[in-house]
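Students often ask what a holo structure prediction actually looks like on paper. The answer is less mysterious than it sounds. You provide the chain, you provide the ligand, and the output is a string of discrete structure tokens encoding the 3D arrangement of the protein together with DOR.
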Amino acid sequence: MTDVTTGGGPGAATPAYLIRGVRVLGAEPTDLLLAGGVVAEAGHGLAARGARVVDGDGLVALPGLVDLHTHLREPGREDAETVESGSRAAALGGYTAVCAMANTSPVADTAGVVEQVWRLGREAGLVDVQPIGAVTVGLAGERLAELGAMAESAARVRIFSDDGHCVADPRLMRRALEYVKAFDGVIAQHAEEPRLTEGAQMHEGEVSTRLGLTGWPAVAEEAIIARDVLLAEHVGSRLHVCHLSTAGSVEVLRHAKKRGVRVTAEVTPHHLLLTDERAASYDPVFKVNPPLRTAADVTALRAALVEGIIDIVATDHAPHALEDKECEWAYARPGMLGLETALSVLLDVLGERWDLIAERMSRTPARIAGLAEHGRNPAPGVPANLTLVDPAARRTIDPGEQASRSRNTPYAGLTLPGRIVATFLRGEPTVLDGKAVR
Ligand code: DOR
Ligand code: ZN
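The corresponding structure tokens follow.
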């Protein structure tokens, strides 16, 4: 598909790339010349002038995808994922930036740890890795972490989250919202009232009753979101809701947005495609937190994403080592891989609605995270962070072919539309011909 026919021009400061005949967000084919880290020119019949030529025939160019919710596992669980392996998985999935969650070991609750993750991301150089800082020390939910020090660090943290845990104490949540207001930060909440989910194994409903597994009721999520939008309104701060998963949560959010609360929300690809019926297999690959919900929830989430009540898609890419997943359901860790399959799942769910996909998977997440170089449609002068998709391709997901160090994809054996052919970070390819360049 991708045809690199000529070398970079002699003495060129940055090797230039000429993408021929690509459909930017599905529009009529055009050429894009990438040089000096930006889209230098767009138009028909551009001369190569020593640039390497990439055949864009049949491909769609999107702004590089931006993931607001990625677990990279480094430091601490490098057997499951590293910043580098996760960055490679991201690039192969069409991403140019990811926000790395704080539930590492040690927890990313100090300037030192967020700077370490940020530095590792720069060294890997495959996507921009923006660390998320913990809200509370050690994710313990008792004392606020050093939010200011993380914000002022080289990593310039703007999103804080105890993801994996809920900031359940309303007073702490209020103080966190107040604290980040000074630098326009955002608190990303994992909405789960812990007293309502003790011992929970899956969504509480007909299927959990049938299987005899302890349920995780929808109200445990909805009650926290309701509380938090009221707190955010009271304080005038920005709240982001992680992995929203129920129809009731959508209604709470709709109400809050109508009132002008500064709240945004994400949904994961797996909550848009899979239901709690999957738990009947007792295959822990389908164990995730929040759990897979009902078909009615899936329908409501899809509609809310199209409508814009849900702002973005975020993967919650959660790699786990074999021993943490290939065990009895009750002992398995919750979480699923997501980076390498997200765009295909969204194409399956939404069809080829390119502008909507770009909005929900790139432009809006970049805006929420404050990543000014990302989330911009490919056009002259814009940083050349973009991805090329072959919408006609179909692929059958093979866990063994994932670049992630882990194998816990819930889509194994499923045939999904779309394939990432190339990804460019500041004009340099991180993926060419469907393969990582390093
Ligand atoms: O399923 C999940 N896995 N949900 C979370 O909130 C945390 C994540 C993880 O870190 O594995
Ligand atoms: Zn979470």
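The pocket of zinc ion (ligand 2) is lined by residues 163-164, 190, 242-243 (CB under 6 Å).
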